[in-house]
Design a protein that fits this description.
Mean pLDDT: 93
Number of helices: 6
Largest sheet: 4 strands, parallel
Radius of gyration: 17 Å
Helix content: 40-55%
CATH superfamily: NAD(P)-binding Rossmann-like Domain
């Protein structure tokens, strides 16, 4: 509020269609339109590194349900309103784990690869309506959330492989997300942009 902006916080289970629809309806009731959707909700920090043969089926289903189905449900819910208003921006948060082929997180890596495929196909379907759909692939980002299995040694090894050998912070992602949410990116769609300090290259 101090900066002249307003935020509306609504607790939502994006894997549940009723919860997603309630979120969109509440947003429209308050703001009358949806210009930008950033799909950032996903399951990662709480899952343990393990061989894919040891991933419990219930955990696989939960990760896929939130990371892929949740992204699909959010896009499906806002697309008709974006079409009606003449356009919009969708930014899907994938992961550089895809370009790394990160092992021992097969469900997470698979889900984020699915987000890239979804982004490309959706961009084709929505482009004629003035809606762009792009994906951002962050590297491992320092947040206030503890990770279940990453060690200090794992982190040091990863930093040493980055072209820019420092921690990645949420602020490192702001520029690209704001760009893709703006009119300056109106002719960019279906793209996957990696933000990981040069650890991987597409």
């Amino acid at each position: 509020m101090a900066s002249g902006h307003e935020a509306l916080a609504i607790q939502t289970d994006i894997s549940d269609v009723t919860s997603v629809q309630a979120l969109v309806e509440s947003t429209l009731e308050r703001y009358q339109r949806v210009d930008v959707l950033v799909n950032n909700a996903s399951i990662f920090s709480s899952i343990k590194m393990r061989q894919f043969t040891d991933i419990p089926l219930h955990e696989w289903n939960q990760v896929i349900s939130v990371n892929i189905t949740g992204t699909f449900l959010m896009c499906r819910a806002v697309a008709p309103y974006m079409k009606a208003q003449g356009g919009g921006r969708i930014v899907n948060i994938s992961s550089a784990a895809v370009t790394m082929g990160k092992p021992k997180y097969l469900h997470y890596t698979t889900s984020k690869a699915g987000v890239i495929g979804m982004t490309r196909a959706m961009a084709k379907e929505l482009g004629s309506s003035g809606i762009t759909v792009n994906a951002v692939l962050p590297g491992a980002t320092d947040t206030e959330i503890d990770r279940e299995t990453n060690t200090a040694g794992d982190k040091a090894a990863m930093l040493s492989m980055r072209a820019i050998p420092r921690d990645e912070t949420p602020e490192d992602l702001l520029g690209i997300v704001l760009f893709l949410a703006s009119d300056e990116s109106a002719f960019i769609t279906g793209q996957s942009i990696t933000v990981d300090g040069g650890l991987t290259f597409l």
